Amino acid sequence: LALLFKLVSRIPNATDKLKEIVEIHIHQMGIDAIKQISDIAFNNPKTYVETILDIYTKFFKLAKEAFNSEQGFTAALDKACAKFINNNAVTTAAGNTKKSPELLAQYCNVLLRKGNIAGEEPDFEEKLNQIMVVFNYVENKDVFLKFYRKMFAKRLVDQLCASDDYEESMISKLKLACGFDYTSELQQMFQDIRISKSLTDQYQTYCERNNFHDIVDFSVMVLKTNSWPFSAPRNFVLPIELKKPFESFTTFYTQQHNGRKLILLHQHSKGDLQTLYTEQKYTLHVSTYEMVILLLFNKRPSWTVERMQDETQIDVHLFWQVLCNLLKSKLITCPEINNNELEEDLNEKNDIKMNYNIQIANNFKSKKVKINLNVPIKSVEQKDIEGLYRTIDKDRIGLIRAALVRTMKSRQTLKHSLLMQEVIHQLSSRFKPQIPVIKKCIEKLIEEKYFERQSNETDMLNYLA
């Protein structure tokens, strides 16, 4: 190929056809490679991204060695990669092109979480550079940010970051590629965690100074509402063991920050309980919901399901799921349910009746002294993903409207077609705006008296102050 290129390059415009052939070939190789692993890759981000990187690396080397990194062949590589990364067997199976950025964000999460062996490798920084190679070809960068931000938030809150340095490096690379606005929320999230560590130390000093010795040992994270992808959960009845420290911390915090309101995010909170009733003492790592249910047994050894739900006021659907998990752990038992039913998936409401009795298992035994019960509920995780996809189109309309107003405010008067071109250009670094959606947004802004059409030229728009 190198010899062919040297010969052909001497003839004016002769390499054009060769570039076209190379682009088609790379694209087809990418399509075929992903098709072969599509069944596995649909739910396996590592396989998906590393297959893409193998194709890219192979043909990047070809462009360098055979074509001397000539600009036209590098451009052919870029076009081919952009095509097969955004449209392939996996995105077709998903029914949209948003699957690629979702899997790329999940791949980042795999690499940046604690326990990942790759994070201990000396060339880990190079792996982050490879992620950016794929990222630069992805069209829907707003989708990537949605998923990356969600998973980054979970890593921070659950203290699962393998390295703060790697996290900062990744954010810096994204900032360099897409600008400050793209990563501003990620940087604020990092800042909130740092401030929270200092805040916890200050609170402990405050407790010592005021002789609050009966406050449960706990740490706190105060997160700014606008920066984090969390929503306030439905309230439930906090037991006294949790209510007292929360009220104490709220008093301390409002003394420093008057006017701010603290809302407990139960779904992201967790803690440790110790069993005092068993022969062997066990430490249970539990979610707040599990903790609330287990603490009921400090009051009495047996409860009906109906009474438990009434006492805690936890959302009914969530209550069933948490109760099922605790029954499967065998920390609590139900005489009306046999062991075979526990081994199978309990059908929540259908298998557990409101009048069933739930008892603490006094003879509970486990090989582990520390038991982790705080595992994600699959149905909740699936709802989170569905919720993210639902908000993407809504957020895009907001970005399109903002770009339209910003452009018209600076230009004052502009042709309809030129306005659309300008908006597409402004937003192309995040996603590819659809022309019908832009037109709808323009019409809506005209209705809302942001713009008006000129009476003598209907394709000309004026900005209304």
Label the structural class.
Answer: mainly alpha
**What is Rg?**
28 Å
In CATH terms, the superfamily of the largest domain is Cullin Repeats
Percent range for β-strand residues: 5-15%
Number of domains: 4
Share in helix: 55-70%
Low-confidence segments: none
User: What topology, given as strand order, has the largest sheet?
Assistant: 1-2-6
Q: Remind me, CATH topology of the largest domain?
A: 5 helical Cullin repeat like
**Global morphology:** globular
Instruction: Report the CATH C-level class of the largest domain.
Output: Mainly Alpha
What would the average pLDDT be, to the nearest integer? 88
Distance between the termini: 61 Å
CATH architecture of the largest domain: Up-down Bundle
Looking at how many chains there are and whether they match, the oligomeric state comes to single chain
* DSSP E strands, number: 9
Order of helices and strands: HHHHHHHHHHHEEHEHHEHHEEHEHHEE
- Counting DSSP H or I runs of 4 or more residues, the number of helices is 19
Quick one: biggest sheet? 3 strands, mixed
